């Protein structure tokens, strides 16, 4: 949630006099004031991202955004899992159902899957989060949006910064950043390298990131920005999921097969993006983003069989939009329209691996292509000085195809095409200059990814029994700022999803099926209170009910009325912060995650848990240079808990033999210094 101090700082004196808030949000595609936005939108600024944080995973920055649930912080082979309002919970790795973009470059593929291992939090300057129906303007994978903006060369004082971190489990990280401005051109570059052995066996990881942005003002109304990002991940081991008996025996162990097969992944990725903004060619403003990304990936899964996977991916596209302010029937109208054309091409291979780790044959060689062409439009009409009506729509043409290059077992080529229309309508009313109430309703679709189209019958091509899921989202909310000290953000949501896509496992591999229907109802509350100049409390509470309807699971169990697995009904995160003079700070964070179930049949309840964390730091001025010192402790009370649960895993085994659980780390420490010169 947006810190009250920053929110208040962005209320200009003249803005207060005329009752306008100048805090602008752009993630709903239509740039507008926060208090004119009929959606659950949260903004996280640079201090929350950086101050005393390791900057390893997004949960560090976004924990106090209501409605977000994070898992898998410590398994770098599977990466962080994120869900909001139930979207994204099914993913055993990566993220589904949520749109991720960085500096206008999509990190979500046309087929709906997202990887976030290349996001550089050392460069991040701002994160906007949409929860709910307003995200439909991004099409497939539209349960929410994370819009990340990295720093420009003119966002920071010119100079350089060197960071060195160290901590438990042989954690080491170094980062260097430099930026400057020359005439109409600004530039910034960040390079980092991280090593960690991990708290479990077979969980070592190494990762290097490079992120750079160069912006050039062609004139006062035109600007061109180039972004380059590179990921080098030579090692990310996967210890596998444990059974309860294995957890009780040794929670830090890896599975036998994970160690024997040396399970894990290697990744190399390079992304180049160009953004052109022009406020002069037309009455409004034109923005064009184009990008190209190449990803080289190889993975050994923690079991024998068809478990070695590799692909070579090319992902590219162009997005354009035009925004203008005009009038309709004498009332102010702000509108945006645009188009997206994105293409994904994966050259995929899969190999058969023996229990001794030997490759005994190839089971897959195919090219997977996904092309998405979409047009969208959205407008805000000021019905009165306080009441705004918003209406938006998007049309998507999504084609997924498989070209089989391994024909000795038959031609398994095929294609699926989806044509979907999504829409959103909302009302926003300003009760006062800094208080708003809104209501929104929207539809969304989410196609299965290529991975989720895998055919459990053993045939290639697409599983003919899996269809896209479609959602009807309804939301009402209020937000505001009392005085300059207390901010609040309350949202109530009700979602109906038809043909919910859920995972199950067969012979060690994950496959997917449609549930009849799911219902999701809940409330999200965010509060921020500046108790004094130095003290601040932030809290985020989510209470929700996620329910399966009209569904029989793969073992024949009637799951009607059961909870959707992997989703706790209660999440509560709070943070107490102290800010002293000259950069001195301290923060105490406590987190509660309620219990949930590990499978559709609700036979295995995962216990709730509390986590406590703390961090502190100080700054020392050395002439024109600054030395920042910081340290932190995670899981202060050394709580036993599961940092990830592989939902519906090993569904073909007896419940007690299913490897659902990835134990979280015990008490861990980190410390570091940053030299700004």
What would the keywords be for this entry?
22-stranded antiparallel beta barrel, single chain, 6 helices, mainly beta, 677 residues, disordered N terminus, Maltoporin, Chain A, 5-stranded mixed β-sheet
Question: What this model shows, in words?
Answer:
A hairpin with a 2-residue loop joins β27 and β28. This protein is mainly beta and 677 residues long. It has a single domain (4-356, 365-676), classed as TonB-dependent receptor, beta-barrel domain (Maltoporin, Chain A). It is globular. It is 5% helix and 57% strand. The protein has six helices and 39 strands. This is TonB-dependent receptor.
Unreliably modeled segments: 1-21
CATH level 3 topology? Maltoporin, Chain A
Treating each run of at least 4 consecutive H or I residues as one helix, how many helices? 6
Query: How many structural domains can be distinguished in the coordinates?
Result: 1
- Count the E strands: 39
Mean pLDDT: 91
Question: Separation of termini?
Answer: 31 Å
Task: Assign an overall shape.
Answer: globular
Proportion of residues in extended strands: over 45%
Instruction: Identify the CATH architecture.
Output: Beta Barrel
Q: How many whole angstroms does the radius of gyration measure?
A: 24 Å
Percent helix, as a range, is under 10%
Q: What's the name of the CATH homologous superfamily?
A: TonB-dependent receptor, beta-barrel domain
Strand count, sense and closure of the main sheet?
Answer: 22 strands, antiparallel, barrel
What's the CATH class, please? Mainly Beta
Structural class: mainly beta
GO molecular function: siderophore uptake transmembrane transporter activity
Organism: Marinobacter nauticus (Marinobacter hydrocarbonoclasticus)
Family: Belongs to the TonB-dependent receptor family.
Domain TonB-dependent receptor-like beta-barrel: 227-636
């Amino acid at each position: 949630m947006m810190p009250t101090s920053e929110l208040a700082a962005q209320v200009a004196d003249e803005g207060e006099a005329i009752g306008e808030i100048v805090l602008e949000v752009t993630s709903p595609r239509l740039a507008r004031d926060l208090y004119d936005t009929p959606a659950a939108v949260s903004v996280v600024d640079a201090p929350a991202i950086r101050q005393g944080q390791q900057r390893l995973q997004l949960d560090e920055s976004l924990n106090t955004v209501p409605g977000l649930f994070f898992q898998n912080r410590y398994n770098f082979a599977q990466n962080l899992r994120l869900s909001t309002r139930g979207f994204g919970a099914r993913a055993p790795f990566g993220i589904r159902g949520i749109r991720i973009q960085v500096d206008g470059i999509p990190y979500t593929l046309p087929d709906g899957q997202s990887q976030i291992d290349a996001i550089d939090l050392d460069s991040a300057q701002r994160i906007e989060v949409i929860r709910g129906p307003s995200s439909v303007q991004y099409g497939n994978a539209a349960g929410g949006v994370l819009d990340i903006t990295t720093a420009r060369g003119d966002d920071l004082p010119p100079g350089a910064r060197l960071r060195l971190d160290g901590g438990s489990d042989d954690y080491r990280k170094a980062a260097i950043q430099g930026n400057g401005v020359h005439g109409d051109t600004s530039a910034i570059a960040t390079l980092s390298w991280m090593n960690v052995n991990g708290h479990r066996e077979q969980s070592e990881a190494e990762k290097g990131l490079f992120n750079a942005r160069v912006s050039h003002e062609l004139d006062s109304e035109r600007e061109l920005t180039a972004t380059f990002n590179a990921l080098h991940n030579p090692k990310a081991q996967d210890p596998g999921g444990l059974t309860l008996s294995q957890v009780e025996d040794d929670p830090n162990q890896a599975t036998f097969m994970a160690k024997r097969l040396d399970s894990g992944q290697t990744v190399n990725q390079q992304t180049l993006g160009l953004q052109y903004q022009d406020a002069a060619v037309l009455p409004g403003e034109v923005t064009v983003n184009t990008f190209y990304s190449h990803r080289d990936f190889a993975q050994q899964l923690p079991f024998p069989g068809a478990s070695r996977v590799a692909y070579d991916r090319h992902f590219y596209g162009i997005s354009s939009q035009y925004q203008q302010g005009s009038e309709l029937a004498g009332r102010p109208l702000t509108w945006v329209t645009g188009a997206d054309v994105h293409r994904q091409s994966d050259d995929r291979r899969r190999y058969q691996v023996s229990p001794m780790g030997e490759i005994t044959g190839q089971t897959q060689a195919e090219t997977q292509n996904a092309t998405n062409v979409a047009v969208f439009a959205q407008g805000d009409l000021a019905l009165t000085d306080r009441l705004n009506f918003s209406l938006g729509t998007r049309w998507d043409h999504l084609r997924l195809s498989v070209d089989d290059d391994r024909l000795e077992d038959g031609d398994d080529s095929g294609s699926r095409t989806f044509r979907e229309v999504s829409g959103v309508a909302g009302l926003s009313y300003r009760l006062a200059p800094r208080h708003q109430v809104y209501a929104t309703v929207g539809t969304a679709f989410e196609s299965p990814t290529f991975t989720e189209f895998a055919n459990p019958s053993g045939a290639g091509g697409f599983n003919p029994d899996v269809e896209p899921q479609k959602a009807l989202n309804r939301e009402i909310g209020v937000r505001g700022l009392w005085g300059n000290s207390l901010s609040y953000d309350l949202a109530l949501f009700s979602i109906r999803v038809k043909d919910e896509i859920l995972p199950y496992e067969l012979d060690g591999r994950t496959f997917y099926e449609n549930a009849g229907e799911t219902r999701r109802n809940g409330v999200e509350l965010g509060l921020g209170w500046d108790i004094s100049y130095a003290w601040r409390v932030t809290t985020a509470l989510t209470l929700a009910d996620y329910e399966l309807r009209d569904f029989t699971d793969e073992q024949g169990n009637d799951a009607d009325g059961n909870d959707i697995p992997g989703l706790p009904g209660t999440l509560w995160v709070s943070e107490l912060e102290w800010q002293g003079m000259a950069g001195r700070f301290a923060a105490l964070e406590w987190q509660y995650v309620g219990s949930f179930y590990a499978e559709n049949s609700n036979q295995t309840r995962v216990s709730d848990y509390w986590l406590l964390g703390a961090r502190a730091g100080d700054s020392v001025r050395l002439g024109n240079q600054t030395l920042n010192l910081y340290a932190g402790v995670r899981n202060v009370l050394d709580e036993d808990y599961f940092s990830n649960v592989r939902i519906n895993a090993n569904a073909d085994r007896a419940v007690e033999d299913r490897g659902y659980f990835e134990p979280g780390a015990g008490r861990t420490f980190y410390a570091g210094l940053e030299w700004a010169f």
